[in-house]
Amino acid sequence: MPTALLLGATGLVGSELLKLLLSDPRFDRVVAIGRRPCGVTHDRLTDAVVDLHDEGAISAVVKGEALFSCLGTTLRKAGSQAAQREIDVEIPLRVARAAAHSGVAAYGVVSSIGADARSSMFYSRIKGELDLAVQTLGFERVRIVRPSILAGDRAESRPLESLGVGAMKALRFIPGLRRYRPIEARTVAKALLAGWADTTPGTRIYEAEELFTLGG
Length: 216
What we know:
Layout: E1 3-7, H1 12-22, E2 29-34, E3 45-49, H2 55-61, E4 66-69, H3 75-78, H4 81-101, E5 106-110, H5 122-134, E6 141-145, E7 150-151, H6 159-168, E8 183-184, H7 185-197, E9 202-206, H8 208-214
Parallel strand pairs: 1-2, 1-4, 2-3, 4-5, 5-6, 6-9, 7-8
Helix pairs in contact: 1-7, 4-5, 7-8
């Protein structure tokens, strides 16, 4: 049975995906790759704490059949566009490149609605840049999910964001805006895993509205 590699296991989607992977009989081992321990103990889990700027250290742990990337941050938390780009693009690409080089067949990544490398919006542009870059690395198959705003229990309190999520849920009643409605992190994680289960070679991009069905 295959080994699943997970980057970003402590995040909103990543923590949900970790639960799914550890309970999925299709995987006999899960490797959580991160800068700090993921805080989970399981007999099938390897907690790989590595320097994510060290390509040699990364290469030593990315041995498996599937890599899932859920790493991401906000501009406010990162502190600058350069810092956000490092977390949202450079680190995931560094890990993906090492994984492809070691023969990992499948790659799945959490992107964002509106991701477009040509966008004038910084966040949409960097997400689009990563989406394009990983498709050139030689993976047998690439699965990209592009959710709208994420809903779920975050480690840190974000009361204003919670209010915004609540208000945006009303978008499901407005034709043309339904795709922008919030989506539960667990639904996104399930959609990413369902995308991996499709063994058709090549790239599949699942847009926001599709994720409700794919991860339902």
